[in-house]
Amino acid sequence: MAIYKDGTQLMQLGNAIFDEEHPPGEPAPRAGIYQCLGCGREVVVAEDAPLPAADHHTHLPLDGTTAWKLLVFADHRPSRRGDPLEE
Ligand SMILES: [Zn+2]
């Protein structure tokens, strides 16, 4: 589970990109935190960088195979402090 301090800096979005499952080595569709669907391990991956390989971490037999799912992605749009559109 991804952990944060200030929930006002996160936005929930019902985008289908969060439902996609990605095999190891596939380019990450967004810069963000990805979770292994087998064991729950989380990693940070830059946009278009390959998702970690299947041997990136150890699985127990009951964990199954490695597949990655996007948990949180970085919003690259500027949001300056004191921005009148933010208040
Ligand atoms: Zn795993």
Describe this structure as you would to a colleague.
- With 87 residues, this protein is mainly β.
- It has a domain at 19-73.
- The protein contains no helices and four strands.
- It has strands spanning 21-22, 32-36, 42-45, 68-73.
- It has a four-stranded antiparallel sheet, with no helix packed on it.
- The chain is elongated and about 55 Å long.
- It starts with 20 loop residues before the first strand and ends in a 14-residue tail after the last strand.
- The model has no long low-confidence stretch (mean pLDDT 92).
- The chain binds zinc ion.
Q: Which key phrases capture this entry?
A:
mainly beta; 4-stranded antiparallel β-sheet; binds zinc ion; 87 residues
Summarize the structure.
The protein is mostly beta strands. The protein is 0% helix and 20% strand. The chain has no helices and four strands.
